[in-house]
Amino acid sequence: MEPLKEKEKAEPVEAARPQAGEVRKTEGGERKPDGEQQKPQAEVEEPEVAAAPAEAAEPAPAPQDADRGAGRRRLKAALWPPRLSRGQLVVALLLFSLGLALAIQVRSTNDHHSQLRGARQEDLVRILDELDGRQQRLQQEKAELEQSLAKLENSSNQAKEAQEQTRKKVTELGVLAGTVKATGPGIVLTVDDPQGQVKADMLLDTLQELRAAGAEAIQINDVRVVVNTYFTDLSGGGVQIDGKKVSQPYRFTVVGNPQDLTPALNIPGGVVRTLESHQARATISQQQKVVVDALVDLKTPQYAKPAPK
Q: Which of 58, 65, 148, 254 is least buried, going by the fewest C-beta atoms within 10 A?
């Protein structure tokens, strides 16, 4: 009976062993048949040796390194060989000329200083005297130039003043001659003549009264009154001034002092009273600004010439 028990105990041990042809798990994770013999160590490590050259190969360059290399090549191509524009070449030549001139100036100054250091006392005194004389001459020339400038400025100012006076005189003469417009305070005298009793002599008397009272510019309707203005009675009635027919009402536009013109027309026996005696009505309107805009054509005198002074 005891041998039978030992046999039963031995059977589980044998069952735990792998049978022939049974697959078992190795350290590498593969299952191999139990009966297969283990390969030599050299055969197992052979794939690793074959893969070693692939691992030792140089890795591919990164994109950033490639971009940096391309940037360096472009920078080198842009800088060398150097490309100079026409403006850069001109600036370079100017800078070179300036540097050369400075170098020559410094060298000449150094040579002059070296000559002065080696000169005798008598030579130095002579040079100093020459410099003093030259300075005096320059000061004298400066004073003369300043005097000439002052004279030119005075002449220019006098010329401007004379030109301004001439322009002002031309304007005044133009107002008197009737070649320019005139404006200022004055009066407007309107003469209504429904009966047709106003004659040329009455209009002339009115004009003379206005001139005597200080009128500076006068216009009757659309005719400018000047020094050679004349009045004519028409045979069919009406008045003609400087060859132009003027119909009533007669409108006098006068530039002058209203406080002087109005009383001169209203004096007893004056213009207003005379016109009223001929069934005409005179109306005076004082204004701060009237405009005399009728102009005359300036005619060259045929016989009169300027007299010598």
A: 58
* pLDDT tens digits, 145-154: 888 888 888 8
Please, what is the Cα angle at 249 between 246 and 255, to 5 degrees? 85
DSSP line for 34-61: TTSPPPPHHHHHHHHHHHHHHHHSPPPP
Q: What is the pLDDT of residues 194-242, one digit of tens each?
A: 888 899 999 999 999 999 999 999 999 999 999 889 999 988 888 999 9
Contact 158, 199 (CB under 8 A): no
CA distance 8 to 250: 168
Packing angle, helices 258-266 and 200-212, rounded to 10: 140
Total count of residues recorded for the chain: 309
Q: What is the 3-state secondary structure (H, E, C) of the chain?
A: CHHHHHHHHHHHHHHHCCCCCCEEECCCCCEEECCCCCCCHHHHHHHHHHHHHHHHCCCCCCHHHHHHHHHHHHHHHHHCCCCCCHHHHHHHHHHHHHHHHHHHHHHHHHHHHHHHHHCCHHHHHHHHHHHHHHHHHHHHHHHHHHHHHHHHHHHHHHHHHHHHHHHHHHHHHHHHHCCCCEEEEEEEEEEECCCCCCCHHHHHHHHHHHHHCCCCEEEECCEEECCCCCEEECCCCCEEECCEEECCCEEEEEECCHHHHHHHHHCCCCHHHHHHHCCCEEEEEEEEEEEECCCCCCCCCCCCCCCCC
Would residue 40 be called left, alpha or beta, if left means φ above 0 and alpha means ψ between -120 and 50 degrees?
beta
Euclidean distance between CA atoms 243 and 142, whole angstroms: 68
